[in-house]
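sanity check this record:
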Amino acid sequence: MRNVRLTEVEEITIVEMRKFHPKSRVRERAQMIELSNKGKSINEITNVVGKNRDTVSTWLSQYEKYGIAGLFDDERSGRNPKVKDSIKDRIIEIAESENTCSSEYITEIIEDEFRVKLHPNTIKYHLKKRKVCLQKNKKQPKGEKRWVKIR
């Protein structure tokens, strides 16, 4: 395979991707393209990036065929999310409507309404993700886990 030739704009884009892209896999692929553009052979590129020859060759071909878009992964199949957006919205709604509530209390409501069993930590996770913080209410009797919301 011959080396990849980049225009000046493509070279800048590839260098920026190699340095700053949030996904390490894309950064690594951009590095392969950059090295190929600098005249490195596939064997030299494999030594630098630590991948086998077929992998490097595949990503160089992907870039030649599809350009920048060829460096990204396709959607992968996986488990469907257990907590759909409607459930997430309801969790926030419950937490914001109640003066005090616990993650266990929210779990019970969600189970009744959606027939989905969630762990209280899952509730806390989604509240935290939406920047709704729950804090222990110090005025509650000992042993009772109630929370008040703070923003």
Notes: The CA atoms of residues 88 and 126 lie 7 Å apart.
